[in-house]
Amino acid sequence: MENRAGTNFAVRVSLIAALGGFLFGFETAVISGAEKTIQSLWSLSSGWQGFTVASSLIGTVIGSLIAGVPAQKLGRKKVLLFIALLYLVSAIGCSLTSIWSLFILFRFVGGLAVGASSVVGPMYISEIAPASIRGRLAGSFQLNIVAGIFVAYLTNFLFVDMGEDSWRWMLGVMVVPSLLFAILLRSIPESPRWLWINGREEEAKGIFQKTGDELALEEIQRESTTEHATGAEKLFTRKFRKPILFAVLLAMFNQLAGINAILYYAPRIFEMAGFSQAESYLQPVYIGAANLFFTLLAMTVIDRFGRKKLLIIGSLGMILFLGLTANAFRGDLAGNQYVLIYLIGFIAFFAFSQGAVIWVFIAEIFPNSVRSQGGSLGSFTHWIMAAIISWTFPIIVESSPQGGYYSFLFYTIMMVIHLIFVWRFLPETKGKSLEKIQQELGIQ
Questions:
Q1: 171 exposed, middle or buried (CB, 10 Å; 0-12, 13-18, 19+)?
Q2: pLDDT tens-place string over residues 263-309
Q3: 413 pLDDT above the threshold of 90
Q4: DSSP secondary structure, 114-146, as one string
Q5: Which member of 142, 298, 306, 425 has the lowest number of beta carbons within 10 Å of its beta carbon?
Q6: Predicted local confidence at residue 3, as pLDDT
């Protein structure tokens, strides 16, 4: 049985690990306030502007792809500490450089941190959290992401009137949470499941006892003979086909909703809709607040409603509001105030469903022996799609008066397909131990 002291311990260390999500969200959204200034500063075409914004995502793709290897060999905690250092270097470099190529380099470094964080943070939390609260604790990573997004939009708005170097303040303020993350990480233990599969059973038992998760300890002891006998396993084998398929498709659909196009280009989208420059920096604050509120709401119900039900509800809402946004961009958008309402509606349903579920679900469905590889695969897929969406969005919207319409229509269609995928094929994982989920997927 779980005890209160153990639950409190699991909550504390999980929330510290989840601070990587705050930096993830901040790094993702902060560029929205600086991207038009940067385009003017370095006289960038729409294509090179898309590349400048997406340079972070290129790093994110690589970071997500390679993070699983050191996380498996060195442990989750050491990799999290290195991620904190990368965030710090990126914040200092981006805010101080006046050379475009160096700016790209430091954005790339920040992207490496985001990609690695999206793999290792949820992985660590899922491996230390008791099953009964794992959804909420793993979901705290997403909650921190949206908190970071909200703070980025808020600081962008606060710094926008600080003159020609305002963009440097926008990017440089990330130094503060990066340092805090690095300091707090030193107080958390290593993942007990990583310790166990690396032959350090006594240390693992001590941590399981601290979390009060006796059921997980019993189940991992039953499976220990098989896991130590087989050693390191390869992910791309027939027996892992189901978790691979579910992780890849869910990660793809997460970005095919258009979320990163909205987060990265929010002020530009509102200017397209007829808002003034000052209003275009204020409206994203409302977007970020809605994102934060509905993620909090999702966290309160994810372990009661389950992952699948949230995804279905979210799909229906996203289809509606993306369709309305697409329709709004068909004609003359001057003064079209409804775009803000539509995008807040979309963000609300995204945060309540895909935003809250993706990192929880991907961290849950892979067995211990390949969880780091599976997490990397899901995150890699997610960020490849994010890079494509973010790179192409300014090209599409600047190439045609109807560019906004075609973009949001495409996102709407993708969410219809996503609804069918979730409804017909995706399994439910709520309230089950990681080992039980493995059994139900037919992985022996």
A1: buried
A2: 777 777 777 777 776 777 788 888 888 888 998 888 888 888 888 99
A3: yes
A4: HHHHHHHHHHHHHHHS-GGGHHHHHHHHHHHHH
A5: 425
A6: 64
Angle (CA) 128 129 132, round 5°: 150
Helices then strands, counting H and E runs in the chain, come out as: 21, 0
Which run of H or E residues covers position 214? helix 214-230
Two tokens at 370? 């390949």
Topology of domain 4-440 in CATH is Growth Hormone; Chain: A; (1.20.1250)
DSSP string across 367-427: -GGGHHHHHHHHHHHHHHHHHHHHHHHHHHHHH-TTHHHHHHHHHHHHHHHHHHHHHHHPP
Q: How far apart are CA 87 and CA 27, in angstroms?
A: 8
Cα–Cα distance, 435 to 222 (Å, whole number)? 10
pLDDT of residue 322: 94
What would the mean pLDDT of 58-66 be, rounded to a whole number?
A: 86
State the pLDDT at residue 338: 82
Contact assessment for residue 428 and residue 306, using Cβ atoms and an 8 Å cutoff: yes
The residue among 199, 3, 121 whose CA lies nearest residue 371 is 121
pLDDT tens-digit series, residues 117-168: 988 988 888 888 877 777 778 778 878 988 998 999 888 888 887 777 888 8
In the chain, where the domains are located: 4-440
Report the C-alpha dihedral over residues 380, 382, 384, 387, rounded to 10 degrees.
Answer: -130
At CB < 8 A and 24+ separation, what contacts does 75-79 make?
A: 75/190, 75/191, 75/194, 75/195, 75/198, 76/120, 76/123, 76/124, 76/127, 76/190, 76/191, 76/194, 77/124, 77/185, 77/188, 77/189, 77/190, 77/191, 79/116, 79/120
| Amino acid code (one letter) for 138 | A
Alpha-carbon gap, residue 417 to 389, rounded angstroms:
17
**419 has pLDDT over 90:** yes
Rounded alpha-carbon distances, angstroms, from residue 347 to 146, 176, 291 = 11, 27, 6
| Closest-CA residue to 41 (of 143, 168, 211, 147) | 168
> Do residues 293 and 64 lie in contact, with contact meaning Cβ atoms separated by under 8 Å?
no
